[in-house]
């Protein structure tokens, strides 16, 4: 398929020869070749990101790395982006980190709630500004990311399953016969209800699903409503 795409592209090129790779061109040639893309990125940045073109481009690069399974380089880029954002805030150019970013920092640096709270108070006292968000804001952001946050319903209703959708973390051993032989006393088990976890995963994939529909020329249906059919299968 890639070979066919290249052949098709080389025929369209009016110069009569295959175009050079972008990275081998001059800055002036870059501007010429990418002028339409630059216009689209600028328009999107002004509409969605307050004119922050750099953030949009960095995010596109991040998505490209993830798509190629280059997760190590993507993680390094994310760390740089967070550091740049933090530096801008320290210099008084921002309004503080988003709660979801603070949550990611706490999780990725293995900080306990008490350790994070101590860091939050210290930074606020030293800088006089609220750069990090308080713990309650992180907990609110976390709820939106975990199963049990988004309402849903099954049609037809499932037998022996509660219609309550606000089901978050469940004790992993609840409803199971306890046995010292099977479960050591220091065992901690947590789980989610299957349907709540499924809905959470779908909401997490919402943007990708809608983009895929647009690529398939299904723009008339992106506003929903959607019917999700679940087919059980063996792993």
Task: Describe, in plain words, how this protein is organized in 3D.
- The protein is 53% helix and 2% strand.
- With 235 residues, it is mostly helical.
- It is globular.
- The model is unreliable at 7-11 (pLDDT under 50).
- Its main location: nucleus.
- Keywords: Chromatin regulator, Coiled coil, DNA recombination, DNA-binding, Endonuclease, Hydrolase, Metal-binding, Multifunctional enzyme, Nuclease, Nucleus, Transferase, Ubl conjugation pathway, Zinc, Zinc-finger.
Mean pLDDT rating = 78
- The largest sheet has its strands arranged as 1-2
- Beta-strand fraction estimate: under 5%
The backbone outline, from C-alpha atoms, is globular
Question: How many helices does DSSP assign?
Answer: 10
| Secondary-structure element series | HHHHHHHHEEHH
Subunit structure: Homodimer.
Pfam family, one: RAG1_DNA-bd
EC number: 2.3.2.27, 3.1.-.-
GO biological process, one term: adaptive immune response
Provide the fold topology.
Blueprint: H1 2-12, H2 27-33, H3 35-48, H4 53-67, H5 71-90, H6 99-108, H7 113-127, H8 135-145, E1 170-171, E2 190-191, H9 194-204, H10 206-215
Antiparallel strand pairs: 1-2
Features:
mainly alpha; 235 residues; single chain; 53% helix; two-stranded antiparallel sheet
In short:
The chain is mainly alpha-helical. Helix content is 53%, strand content 2%.
């Amino acid at each position: 398929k890639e070979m066919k795409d290249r052949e098709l592209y080389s025929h369209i090129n009016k110069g009569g020869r295959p175009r050079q790779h972008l990275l081998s061109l001059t800055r002036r040639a870059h501007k010429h070749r990418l002028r339409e893309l630059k216009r689209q990125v600028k328009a999107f940045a002004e509409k969605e990101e307050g004119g922050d073109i750099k953030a949009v481009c960095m995010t596109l690069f991040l998505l490209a790395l993830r798509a190629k399974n280059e997760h190590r380089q993507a993680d390094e880029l994310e760390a740089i982006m967070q550091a740049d954002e933090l530096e801008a805030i320290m210099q008084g150019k921002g309004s503080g980190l988003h709660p979801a970013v603070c949550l990611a920092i706490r999780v990725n640096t293995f900080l306990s709630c008490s350790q994070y709270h101590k860091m939050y108070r210290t930074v606020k006292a030293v800088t006089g500004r609220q750069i990090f968000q308080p713990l309650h804001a992180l907990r609110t952001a976390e709820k939106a990311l975990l199963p049990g946050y988004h309402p849903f319903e099954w049609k037809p209703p499932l037998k022996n399953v509660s219609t309550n959708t606000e089901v978050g973390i469940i004790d992993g051993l609840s409803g199971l016969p306890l046995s010292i032989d099977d479960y050591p006393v220091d065992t901690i088990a947590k789980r989610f209800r299957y349907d709540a976890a499924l809905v959470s995963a779908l909401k997490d994939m919402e943007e990708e699903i809608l983009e895929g529909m647009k690529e398939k020329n299904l723009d008339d249906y992106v506003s929903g409503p959607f019917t999700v059919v679940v087919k059980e299968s063996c792993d």
